[in-house]
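Handout, page 2. Input:
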Amino acid sequence: RQLETPCTDVPAVRSIAAAFYEDYLYVLNGHNGPGQYSLSVKSPQSEFYVFKVEGGTVRKAGDPIVDEFPSAYAQMRIHGGKAYVTDYNVGMLAFDLTDPAKPRKVARYYGAAEGDALFVQDGRAYFWQTFGGQTYVIDCAAPAAPACRAVYWDGAWVAYQNRFRGLNTIWGKGPVVYSTRSGVGLAMLDVRNPGAPRLIGALNPAEI
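Output:
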């Protein structure tokens, strides 16, 4: 969506991710973002900004939601009236958008940290974390109580070898989820049984 008038009510943030929902624009300020490896009481806290979109203009709708813990928000997906956010220091968070002007954090899923790429489909969230390369399958049927259904790992170490990073490095359609993997290229996972995702194919860029 292109705005007719530039927004001048935007604070100086490092925009990690953004998404539209109804008449609102959500922007994450992950501060250090991916790469924040050490934490202390002085580590930054991520912020969730809400902007009202009216016609071709946008304005800030209140103060941002500030995480109560040191955090590094990474990616965001909107699904089923919820905003799912990966946090490089924790794993994944869920925000309720019943009142889109006032998102409300309802859950924090503690994975193995370094939550990065994120995809949500049919009430399940898939995200991989960079330090070790596991892909998590999270059941979000009860968004306030997300539960891990499975952890897929094929030996690929994403952290230092995978040059494919960011939001769209995991995606899916129907029973198949596609994920970039170091040393593999593109891995195709059968997720018809969410408790036991399995590799059904891989595409190495060198073979294209």
